[in-house]
Specification:
With 126 residues, this protein is an alpha/beta fold. 14% of the residues lie in helices and 24% in strands. The protein contains three helices and six strands; from the N terminus they run E-H-E-H-E-E-E-H-E. A hairpin with a 4-residue loop joins strand 3 and strand 4.
Length: 126
């Protein structure tokens, strides 16, 4: 079974675009995000709360921390976007939490329009 739908929310208001990313205090409290998965979907995939999973698409693969959430529809995942950065981006140190614990779904999205429906599949990293 795969989670075939991904709901991407705007970033946390304080981190909207890159403005808040330059604020060291906000970065300390908002530098990481999780992929929220319906409990039933996570169980079917062998994922538990706090696990790390790979999310893959035709464009790439990212490693994400998983949180179980009953308010997410089965077969769907949800996250805040624009929290994570590539290691070294924005002149951040290579061990900054945005690059080691945060993630950005944009890295899975092609810049070319392929179809109206894109899919991504979370799988355990074990």
């Amino acid at each position: 079974m795969s989670a075939s739908r991904c709901t991407r929310s705007p970033s946390a208001r304080a981190m909207y675009h890159s403005w808040g990313s330059q604020n060291a205090w906000l970065r300390q409290i908002l530098a990481r995000n999780s992929l929220y998965i319906a409990r039933s979907t996570a169980e079917a995939l062998g994922l538990a709360d706090g696990d790390w999973a790979w999310v893959t698409s035709p464009t790439g693969r990212i490693r994400v921390p998983v949180r179980l959430m009953d308010g997410v529809e089965a077969g769907t995942v949800w996250t805040w976007n624009a929290i994570g950065k590539r290691s070294g981006a924005w002149n951040l140190s290579t061990d900054a939490p945005e690059g080691t614990k945060g993630f950005l779904l944009n890295h899975l999205i092609s810049e070319l329009l392929r179809s109206a429906t894109a899919t991504a599949t979370p799988t355990p990293t074990r």
